[in-house]
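Structure tokens please, single chain.
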Amino acid sequence: MKTKHEQIIEHIISLQVGNKISVRQIAKDLNVSDGTAYRAIKEAENQGLVSTIERVGTIRIERKEKENFERLTFAEVINIVDGQVLGGGDGLHKTLNKFVIGAMKLDAMMRYTAADSLLIVGNRMKAQELALSAGAAVLITGGFDTEEHIKRLADEKQLPLISTSYDTFTVATMINRAIYDQLIKKEIIFVEDIATSFQKVYYLDAKNTIADWYRLNEQSKHSRFPVVDKKRQVIGMVTSKDVIGQEDHVFIEKVMTKNPLVVQGKTSLAYVAHMMVWEGIELVPIVDQSYQFQGIVSRQDVLKALQQIQRQPQVGETIDDIVSSDIMTVEADQTIFQTTVTPQMTNQLGTLSYGVFTALITEASSRLLLHVKKSDLVVENLTVYFIKPVQIDSRLIIKPHPLEIGRIYAKIDVEIFNDRKLVGKGLIMAQLIDR
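Here you go.
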């Protein structure tokens, strides 16, 4: 039987895009408490089903698919720019295809202003009116209001008319940054993207016996199984090591490993990979917020997904991507690396940031291990024990020295030089994953 929380989420999904949602109405319609309704609405917001806007309320929006992440809804734009809705509130759930900065003559501006676009403009009422007539939403900068007939036109066309106190350049930068951030998020793979669902998973009940384990082992050819209770909550894991030497009538709950490590669907693939290597785990159960069993992810699933990621182009660049793309090997030695400090790699003082410094250590160590042992690393410990300020445009030489490289473990000392002067040292300890 579905929980009240799940029933509310399903009810929200069933609502038409653009509908307004309130805690009180949900509580009344589904006969639940205000607290239960509030928590479910917040979860729906996390899932991208609704958006809450100041002075407007919570509205049902269309959930984005991964390929549509580069588009924002107008409701999201309002939150990004701290905007106020002047008109056209019924169109907040719509997405914008592009935005246009209204800093040109009207005829030129209208050539670029198409339906489903957003015109960013100041106190130019004729431009606002023409944009709405052409099917575009309007974002008025500088905190200006507009005339009543323009607000009525926005309501009639169901196109958002928004006002913000920020200037045009700042608003364009904020929207562009939001799109860019979503492009990076688009590339992050979560556990739910590679998981084996509950319906396809072999598992055992706490009151099953050792004999049941052997029957399931024969049927599935697997040796590890999650253990669930009557509420389908994960309470343990049982493996071949747990059942060896046990009599057939012994209950699984007597031999299982209690309180196993579990993850949720929105846990990142990188975190799960690190956890599996760190803890030596082959299989992790996936649960929802109430710890109900949803599926599993195996070590093999994770490694296959990581290999797939490496073959795909990165759309958005993180700091790690910038660091990685700028590091080159020194021609004379494939285990020594060089890079130049760019503005993106500096802190507010204009010197190499601490975070980038650690990224340089990690990237150089990773490339060294790839060259020497054909292995990837998962960082277990990183210690920076010496660092000097490094200016923009400085050319750095990075020298990783392997202190110990075993089958599954490595310890590497890294020195960083600028003009032959030592400017930083770090020690990295990591576990290895064979390619």
